[in-house]
Write a structure and sequence with these properties.
Rossmann fold, six-stranded parallel sheet, 2 domains, 11% strand, Histone, subunit A, transferase, alpha/beta, 331 residues, 6 strands
Length: 331
């Protein structure tokens, strides 16, 4: 039997999914129907000047364009900013709808963060120097020795997460996985009636086609000129989180003369597919999700185990999402 709903807690809707899955369009439709305010959960949209390559939406979102690209932004920053914004939305009598694909930001906000050591610029610089000399896979091998649990979760080429894990260990002598086990409470999930939705095409080939088409449209829309303008700014460099964003990093390498434009585009599309794969890995393990699986045309598909597929396909995406929001067991 489902637990009784605590109606004294305000409602919070989270809409997750891999890149190019249709999250933004659905979130805008939901916002218009439910009088929600949208909160972006995206590590690229926070930066001013990263517009075309981040698919920055025209519809108003909180936590968009809040940093210059030379100012790193962390999951802890997001958790603090989102907490303030969500409180303000609720105080205005509206429903906050968090939408995006940066799963670490979702987790930081909903579950809270471990009180691990603050960033140490000297240690980080030393790690960056080692990586430049030896390559990130060599540093991943170091992490494997001191924190195999974290190494299993972090790809050898995911430089930002790898650097942070090594930095935490070198500054404290305690693996980052242990800090995470000591995680503090205080996450937002305990303060709201939570409804979590995930959207994704069931056929991964459809998602890959959308990724390739979107990147083609970005290039036609002036993405290279956008990166060229960033490249010309002396305070920006390829180790900044903003410039490491998928698409920006690959075109930056082209502008540095490291590859042809064709190679840069191919690498960017491949990297975006890898990003989508990582996002789906997070989502498959995420508790309490209501899945909206779609076909190539964006229609909602019935569960694979369903015996009444024809009848269940009549509902459109928005209708199915509203059904989940109304009927989902809020936590």
């Amino acid at each position: 039997m489902a637990e009784p709903v605590d109606t004294t807690r305000p409602r919070l809707i989270c809409l997750m999914g891999p890149t190019a899955s249709g999250k933004t369009d659905l979130a805008i439709d939901l916002a218009r129907v439910l009088d929600c305010e949208l909160v972006s959960v995206d590590s690229a949209l926070v930066y001013r000047g990263l517009d075309i390559g981040s698919a920055k939406p025209d519809y108003p979102h909180h936590l968009v364009d809040i940093r210059d690209p030379d100012q790193p932004y962390s999951a802890a920053d997001f958790a603090a900013d989102a907490g303030r914004v969500v409180n303000d939305i609720v105080a205005r009598g509206k429903t906050p709808l968090l939408v995006g694909g940066t799963m670490l930001y979702f987790r930081a906000f909903l579950e809270g963060l471990a009180d691990m050591p603050a960033a140490d610029p000297a240690i980080r610089a030393a790690i960056e120097a080692e990586a430049a000399a030896q390559g990130w896979p060599a540093l991943h091998a170091q992490l494997q020795e001191v924190d195999p649990e974290a190494a299993a979760r972090i790809h050898p080429n995911h430089s930002q997460r790898l650097s942070r894990a090594l930095e935490v260990y070198r500054s404290s002598g305690i693996p980052i996985s242990e800090w995470q086990r000591r995680q503090q409470g205080g996450g937002a999930a305990s303060r709201y009636r939570l409804c979590q939705l995930a959207i994704c095409p069931r056929d991964r080939a459809v998602l890959h086609q959308r990724i390739a088409l979107r990147f083609e449209q970005m290039m036609a829309g002036g993405f290279l000129d956008e990166v060229r303008a960033l490249h010309a700014r002396p305070e920006l460099h390829p180790e900044l989180p903003a410039i490491r964003a998928v698409g920006y990093r690959q075109l930056w390498h082209y502008l540095d003369g490291d590859c042809s434009l064709e190679e840069a585009v191919e690498r960017a599309v491949a990297a975006t597919r890898q990003l989508a794969k990582r996002q789906l890995t997070w989502l498959r393990k995420w508790p309490g999700l209501n899945w909206l699986e779609t076909d190539a045309a964006g229609n909602v598909l019935p569960p694979l185990r369903s015996h009444s597929a024809v009848e269940q396909c009549v509902e459109n995406l928005l209708q199915q999402a509203l059904k989940f929001i109304d009927e989902a067991p809020f936590h």
